[in-house]
Every structure is written in structure tokens, then in C-alpha cells.
UniProtKB/TrEMBL annotation:
Annotated Pfam families: Lipase_GDSL
Residue ranges crossing the lipid bilayer per the database entry: none
Cleaved signal peptide residues: 1-20
MF-aspect GO terms: hydrolase activity, acting on ester bonds
Organism of derivation: Hibiscus trionum
CDD domains: SGNH_plant_lipase_like (cd01837)
Top-level taxonomic group: Eukaryota
Name the UniProt record assigns to this protein: CUTIN SYNTHASE2
One BP annotation, GO: lipid catabolic process
Length: 369
């Protein structure tokens, strides 16, 4: 009897100690803000009248609830894996009614499937949150945060936060190349279009800096021509679609250069660039090395490579999502997202410039008092 009481109080002591540690950790965890397109949308489009959505089965089939969340994945997406690395809960979509009170301290996700760098990208999806609007919401968020913790504390939280921005792929697939002869492709040659995109993206990143972001992870586009959708629509025998590969090949190095220029202008490594094209290329050229049986066929879809149309309950669905690099015609599987995030965290300078995310976060912790 006494023994079990002693054991019980010992357990309570240990438990409260563990809880104290984990509470401290939650409070100390860095806030996380996410901007961009469907690769990083955590469900904002669920709240909008748009066709760009992932809120019906089998999306989310590998989440604990097995229910769709609005993420374009069978399970976690890249922001979720980054939240894990930060020791935080996943970010809530900014439009979620649950984003209230202390949950604001975790950060917020402003991303919206279908958007691009340009306002005219994704017009076919009608009601989506374009970049300028995501940045307006970020300012609105900051005033809500200031109401909660005060202006100085809100500013500190934002300046120490990690920011992820993933945008640009749609400016090719849902703009320049959307119809045989799009307005943008009549206006610009591909090299000139890429230059224009980079100069508009630079303005967006500058704006992000002006509204308080100081640790920004910028991802490039993947190998656009190799996704199952493009293999189905533009490839004759399974080779990556040349024109889109050329677009990604022009865009990604210029993005890295632009970021280098921004950092030197600002006199600090505010931005780090992830070479997601190289990262994804690795497992597209050698899927077996990463435990994938295919990087050409989507797990969920129909037609050649399961690359046509949308992923719905009526689509083909693979039994084991972990052996597919692509979940649907455009988006990586949960396992691929995890591999990409590992490269972002720990990759060498050929993947991450000027440094990887672990180094960026460690550097910052060292200067925090
Ligand atoms: C996009 O639209 C917003 C709102 O109309 C405008 O302020 C912004 O300048 C536009 N951006 C570009 C690149 O045209
Ligand atoms: C990237 O991150 C790891 C920490 O996980 C670090 O040890 C390593 O040196 C970094 N790699 C490079 C090449 O910067």
C-alpha cells in the first residue's frame, strides 16, 4: 500500500517533470510561417470556392484519421516534416477557425493551391489566395499576434521564426504552358519569361523581409517535366518533357543567384535556397536507391502513368504509397516529402545554398540569449 502510494507519487513527480520539459519546449519552439502553392498548402483552399482542392478521399489516406485535410499528399507534406524538426505542431491554415489564442504562437500557413508568382497564374482556379494576399494576411496575423502578446513580443516571434516559401511551378504549368499558345507565351520567350518571374519573385521576397521575416527558406521548382502529369500529356515514351525541363533548368539557377544577390544587399543570410530540382532529380533518376519502385507512375490517378485528371475515389490507387515517389499526377508522396525535407535539413552546399536548414537554425540559436 505505502509502496504503491510512493510509486504513484514518484510517477506523478516524473510525469510533471516531463510535462514541465515539454511545456518549456513548446514555448521555446520557433514559430513557423508558410507561403506558396499546393506543395505546401495545409488546407486553406478547403475554405474557398475553387477547384484546386484536396479535401476528399483518398487524399490523407495515410494520416492517423485516414481523412483528407486539404494537403496534396497521402499523409504529411514538407511543412509538416519541418514542423516535426522544429518540435512543433503542424501549422494551421490561416483560414481555419481553429487558429485562435495560443495556437497563433505556433505560426500559420498562408499557402493556397494553384497560385503562382504572378497574379494571372491559376486564374482557372478562380478563388485562390494569391501571393500579395498571402502577404496581407501575414500582416493581419501579426496584428492579431500583437493583440495576444504585445507588439514587441510579436515582433520578436516573427523575426526569430522560420519562414518557408514554395512558389513558381504553377507559373509554368498553370500559366505559360497551360494552353498551346498562352498569353504569356505570346508575350515572352521562355528565357525572358524566366527573367520576368525572377524579378517579380525578388519583389515578393523583399516584401516578406519588409514585413518582418528574417529566416526564409526558399525552394525552387522540381523537375517540372518529369511529373506523371507531364509524362502522360507531353512525353512519347516516358522520358521527361523537354520543354518543361528546360524551363526548370533556366529558373532554378537564376533563383539561387537572385537570392545570393538579395542576401548581399541585405548584408545577412536572410534567405536560403533549396535546390529541389536536384533533390527530386536524384530519386527520379535512381528511384531504387531511395526505396521507390517507380518515380514515373503516380499512386493515385488514371490514364498513362496515372497522370491524367484528378486523384479521386474513382481513380486507381496503389496499395503501398511508400514505394511511389509521386502520390498524385503532380505531388510527391509522404515518403518522398520526408526525403526532400531531410535534404533541406542536412544537405550539402550543392543542395542548399548558402547553408542547410540545420545550420541556419543552429546559427540562430547560438546568437539567441
Ligand atoms: C497583383 O495584384 C495586386 C492587387 O491587385 C497588386 O497590388 C500587385 O501589384 C499585383 N502584382 C503584380 C506582379 O502585378
Ligand atoms: C548540414 O547539416 C548538418 C547538420 O545536420 C551539418 O553537420 C553539416 O555540416 C551540414 N552540411 C553542409 C555540407 O553544410
Amino acid at each position: 500500500m505505502t509502496n504503491s502510494v510512493a510509486l504513484a507519487s514518484w510517477l506523478i513527480l516524473v510525469l510533471s517533470f516531463v510535462m514541465a520539459i515539454s511545456t518549456t519546449r513548446v514555448e521555446a519552439a520557433r514559430a513557423f510561417f508558410v507561403f506558396g502553392d499546393s506543395l505546401v498548402d495545409n488546407g486553406n483552399n478547403n475554405y474557398l470556392a475553387t477547384t484546386a482542392r484536396a479535401d476528399s478521399p483518398p487524399y490523407g489516406i495515410d494520416t492517423p484519421s485516414r481523412r483528407p485535410t486539404g494537403r496534396f499528399s497521402n499523409g504529411k507534406n514538407i511543412p509538416d516534416f519541418i514542423s516535426d524538426a522544429l518540435g512543433s505542431e503542424p501549422t494551421l491554415p490561416y483560414l481555419s477557425p481553429e487558429l485562435q489564442g495560443n495556437r497563433l504562437l505556433v505560426g500559420a500557413n498562408f499557402a493556397s493551391a494553384g497560385i503562382g508568382i504572378l497574379n494571372d497564374t491559376g486564374i482557372q482556379f478562380i478563388n485562390i489566395i494569391r501571393m500579395y494576399r498571402q502577404l496581407e494576411y501575414f500582416q493581419e496575423y501579426q496584428s492579431r499576434l500583437a493583440d495576444l502578446v504585445g507588439t514587441d513580443e510579436a515582433q520578436r516571434i516573427v523575426s526569430e521564426a522560420l519562414v518557408l516559401i514554395t512558389v513558381g511551378g504553377n507559373d509554368f504549368v498553370n500559366n505559360y504552358y497551360v494552353v498551346p499558345i498562352s498569353a504569356r507565351s505570346r508575350q515572352f520567350s521562355l528565357p525572358d519569361y524566366v527573367k520576368y518571374l525572377i524579378s517579380e519573385y525578388r519583389k515578393i521576397l523583399m516584401r516578406l523581409y519588409e514585413v518582418g521575416a528574417r529566416k526564409v527558406l526558399v525552394t525552387g521548382t522540381g523537375p517540372l517535366g518529369c511529373v506523371p502529369a507531364e509524362l502522360a500529356m507531353r512525353s512519347t515514351n516516358g522520358e521527361c518533357a523537354a520543354e518543361l525541363q528546360r524551363a526548370a533548368g533556366l529558373y532554378n539557377p537564376q533563383l539561387v543567384q537572385m537570392i545570393k544577390g538579395l542576401n548581399s544587399e541585405l548584408g545577412a543570410n536572410v534567405f536560403i535556397a533549396a535546390n529541389t530540382q536536384k533533390q527530386t532529380n536524384d530519386f527520379i533518376s535512381n528511384p531504387g536507391a531511395y526505396g521507390f519502385t517507380t518515380s514515373k507512375i503516380a499512386c493515385c490517378g488514371q490514364g498513362p502513368y496515372n497522370g491524367l485528371g484528378l486523384c479521386t475515389v474513382a481513380s486507381n490507387l496503389c496499395p503501398n504509397r511508400d514505394v511511389y515517389a509521386f502520390w498524385d499526377p503532380f505531388h510527391p508522396s509522404e515518403r518522398a516529402n520526408g526525403i526532400i525535407t531531410d535534404m533541406i535539413l542536412n544537405g550539402s552546399p550543392s543542395y542548399m545554398s548558402p547553408m542547410n536548414l540545420s545550420s541556419l537554425l543552429a546559427l540562430d540559436t547560438a546568437t539567441r540569449t
